[in-house]
Amino acid sequence: MHTPTKTELRQKILTLLRKQKEEERLAKSLVILNKLLKRPEFQKALTVLFYAAFDGEVDTFEMMQRAQQLGKKIGLPYIVRKEKRMIPTVVESIEEDLAIGPYGVKQPREISRKKTLSTDELDLVIVPGVAFDRHNHRLGRGQGYYDRFLKGLSARTPTIGLAFDFQIVDRFPPKEEHDVPVSCVLVS
Length: 188
Description:
By secondary structure, the protein is of the alpha/beta class. It has 5 helices and 11 strands, in the order H-H-H-E-H-E-E-E-E-E-E-E-H-E-E-E. It has a single domain (6-187), classed as NagB/RpiA/CoA transferase-like (Rossmann fold, 3-Layer(aba) Sandwich), CATH 3.40.50.10420. It has helices at 6-19, 22-38, 40-44, 61-69, 145-151; strands spanning 47-49, 73-80, 85-91, 98-100, 106-108, 124-127, 131-133, 138-139, 159-163, 168-169, 184-187. The strands form 3 sheets. It has a 6-stranded mixed sheet, with helices on both faces. Strands 8-7-10 form a 3-stranded mixed sheet, covered by helices on one side. A two-stranded antiparallel sheet has the order 4-5.
């Protein structure tokens, strides 16, 4: 039996994400949002780093609004493409503080020292993935931003992946040593 390569698996699932109807994506995202709201890691967190959903991913914009309504500080990654790294940055207004960044993903419009979050300040990190396996390993988009970022997080900082049911696979092709699993994955 042919085990798909990471590239084949990534292409297959990205196609499924893009083909999903928008109303279905939003309905399933709402199910995941409700699961997130019940998680003790989320309830306890004062500062949460989200990702800006794009390209058919689980919607995070409603999650960010709910987190803010609950009095939590939210952040999004600011991508520094030349250095292939992301900097967690506070977002006060989802409507006004975001601009399209590298790769077509929304990110904080600007970065300043007072808006930058250290990894120690993060109580929870919400992690995107093209796919996740049953052991919470993730397959990203292949650039390695999140793998590098997650490696630098304290082991005490919970990380939660978000996925639709078709993004869960039994296992990936052999994992690489830089792959970092998430604490858990919320699925709809």
